[in-house]
Amino acid sequence: LPAAPGNPVVIRNTNTSVVVTWGASKDVKHLVGYYIECSQTGTDIWMACNNKPVKETRFVCHGLTNGANYVFRVKAVNAAGYSPSSPDSEAVVVKAAISVPGKPTGVTLLEAVKDRMVLVWTAPANDGGATVRGYFVDYRTVKGDVVGKWHEMNHQALTTTSYKAENLKENVFYEFQVRAMNMAGLSKGSVPSAVLECKEWTITLPGMQEHSSTFGKKGSLYRDPLNINHTLL
């Protein structure tokens, strides 16, 4: 009979599949292939992942339950019969290896100057398993109980957690939301900001001095908006 295959290693793949690899069975003559079995942890019920032997030492197991914990084992087979089972793999939760990020949070107005607003927010706590590559800011107008449709402000991803929204209308009320992007796609929109009026307004932060500026009303005092550069990754 063939010797037992080496320890299986399981890698997440999709919401319903994983990739299983293992060490080849040694000192086996006329190997027909391998069978892979899986079991939800705590059940001790084993199910076949493949209905015919595979000759490679890698197999994608499909049809698993998203969010469930599984362990895997492998058997080799030749004309003489089946090998003993390999050791069980470590348990793995079935879920996509990469997903879109979570929502950004805390969309806040830092400064407003007539027809522009400086917004800041916090990066999502969950990056979806891949680096967040940028952000998109959406806006909508609010007039009393009438709320407009969302419109995208920037067409290239922002690499910072701040944005200077320009070409707005003075004394108009706006809401803003932010979406994060990684290689899997775009997150859902953040919780919208508070309803914000676009008018000259200043908030003083520690360590930043007020001074005259060419923006806004003549002679008014406020800090310059953040100097923000946006680059597409």
UniProtKB/TrEMBL annotation:
Answer whether the UniProt record assigns the keyword Transmembrane helix to this protein. Answer: no
Keywords from the UniProt entry: Repeat
Q: Does the keyword Transport apply?
A: no
Q: Where is each Fibronectin type-III domain found? A: 4-97, 100-207
User: What's in the GO CC field?
Assistant: M band
Gene Ontology MF term list: kinase binding
GO BP terms: namely: sarcomere organization
| Stretches assigned to coiled coil | none
Could you identify this protein by its name?
Answer: Chromosome undetermined SCAF6841, whole genome shotgun sequence
Show the taxonomic lineage: Eukaryota, Metazoa, Chordata, Craniata, Vertebrata
